[in-house]
Amino acid sequence: LAGGIILGVALWLRHDSQTTNILYLQLGDKQAPNTFYVGIYILIAVGAVMMFVGFLGCYGAIQESQCLLGTFFTCLVILFACEVAAGIWGFVNKDQIAKDVKQFYDQAFQQALMADSDTNNGKTVVKTFHETLDCCGPDNMIGALTPLWREELCPKKDSLLKNLIEPSSCHRKIDELFSGKLYLIGIAAIVVAVIMIFEMILSMVLCCGIRNSSVY
């Protein structure tokens, strides 16, 4: 069940409309940075393997097989090591993921402002960012000094009140998007790690109990 929940969360994160709309973009020959998906793929793999290993543990407990329970324990140790490695990787790359996406957005934004912007897809990329994240422009001074692009690149608001409100910067929205998603991945990883620790303890207790009972 835990493996199924982790797999479901990972697949939801993988196919979330906001991240897929942004991370599938291409600026000329350059693909948007998709390092974010590495952590999700690890969660998908761990969730799928956990489901299989869970069946192995249940069958071993029903059959009271020390061999199957030992294999179950070994698989859990390997999965736990992968989980810790993924957690360390996510913590180290937490800020870098958002930074790479912001740099990709800035490059597209600069190309969208160029005179020959019709020859590249900079405007399309920028509009996708603006519509997906409901934001308008970067944090830097380019946005403040060139207000004419807002009419063309920023999403139109439905009401007059929304038009009067200053839209959020895309840099801040990108930070919020990926920090929120990475927190979800982190919470899922912690839950899995705690469950795995209990599974390892209980499988060893059961294995030792079967061994002791077989002596008598």
From TrEMBL:
Membrane topology per record: Multi-pass membrane protein
CDD domains recorded: CD81_like_LEL (cd03151)
SUPFAM superfamilies recorded: Tetraspanin (SSF48652)
InterPro entries for this protein: Tetraspanin/Peripherin, Tetraspanin_animals, Tetraspanin_CS, Tetraspanin_EC2_sf
Protein keywords: Adaptive immunity, Cell membrane, Disulfide bond, Immunity, Lipid-binding, Membrane, Transmembrane, Transmembrane helix
Disulfide bonds: 135-170, 136-154
Compartments (UniProt record): Basolateral cell membrane; Membrane
A single BP term in Gene Ontology: regulation of cell population proliferation
Family: Belongs to the tetraspanin (TM4SF) family.
Name of the protein described by the UniProt record: Tetraspanin
